Amino acid sequence: MLLVPKKAFLTRGCGTHKEKLASFEAALREAGISHLNLVEVSSIFPPYCELVSRTEGLRLLQPGAITHVVLSRNQDNEFHRSIAAAVGIAIPQDRSHYGYVSEHHSFGQTRKEAGDYAEDLAASMLATTLGIQFDPNTNYDEKKAIYRMSGKIVTSRNTTATAVCQRGAWTTVVAALVFIP
After folding, report:
1. Per-residue pLDDT tens for 102-153?
2. pLDDT of 140-160, one tens digit each?
3. Which has the higher per-residue pLDDT, 132 or 177?
4. Where are the domains of the chain?
5. Dist CA 179 CA 154 (whole Å)
6. Which residues are CB-contacts of 81 (< 8 A; sequence separation ≥ 6)?
7. How far is residue 133's CA from residue 122's CA, in Å, rounded to a whole number?
8. How far apart are CA 38 and CA 71, in angstroms?
9. How far is CA 64 from CA 37, 61, 123, 171, 178, in A?
10. CATH class of 8-180
11. Strand order in the sheet with 44-45
12. pLDDT tens digit string along 34-90?
């Protein structure tokens, strides 16, 4: 039996608590996925998979469901430390071909920096499989223009959670692409 998701959605969350695990739970709650049994998978966006809104996606899932996700997670308890978790996706124009999902977590990056990095990773992986020529050392905006001009990559985006750690508490940020069968 093949499990190929038909739909997917992006989500993110942040949680803070004196206990590390509880801060992770709080981040999952904010992301809306704490009621699911999450199974982490690697980074392929299936052919013909439809990207839907978080609201629509959550409506299709039941509490306790075994749910596949590409998950980025970052946690720390160092006062004033900036943390980020991002997931980027790149979907090809030809929907019969698979796309890519990337996860990235970092310290000290802004939401835009971490999100652009994750999105660039996914788009670069897809571009290389599609034979799009580009200089990997150019900035993401320049590469994005090349991807668009090629007509082979139709969608790239990201979701990113950032936070600054508070005194005496753990802070967790999560970003996820959630698959729906």
Report:
1. 999 999 999 999 999 999 999 999 988 998 887 778 887 777 777 776 888 7
2. 777 777 777 688 877 899 999
3. 177
4. 8-180
5. 20
6. 107, 164, 165
7. 15
8. 9
9. 6, 9, 33, 25, 14
10. alpha beta
11. 44-45, 99-107, 82-92, 153-164
12. 999 999 999 999 999 999 999 999 999 999 999 999 999 999 999 999 999 999 999
Alpha-carbon dihedral angle through residues 148, 102, 18, 110, given to the nearest 10 degrees:
-30
Amino acid, single-letter form, for residue 125: M
Cβ atoms of 50 and 58 within 8 Å: the answer is no
Instruction: Quote the CA–CA distance of 34 and 28 in Å, as a whole number.
Output: 5
Quote the crossing angle between the two packed helices 111-130 and 140-150, to the nearest 10°.
Answer: 40
Q: How many helices (H) and strands (E) does the chain have?
A: 4, 9
Cβ contacts of 56 within 8 Å, gap of 6 or more: 7, 9
62 burial level (CB within 10 Å; 0-12, 13-18, 19+): exposed
What pLDDT was estimated at residue 2?
81
Residue type at position 104: H
Q: For residues 169 and 1, what is the distance between their CA atoms, to the nearest angstrom?
A: 44
| C-alpha–C-alpha distance, residues 23 and 16, integer Å | 5
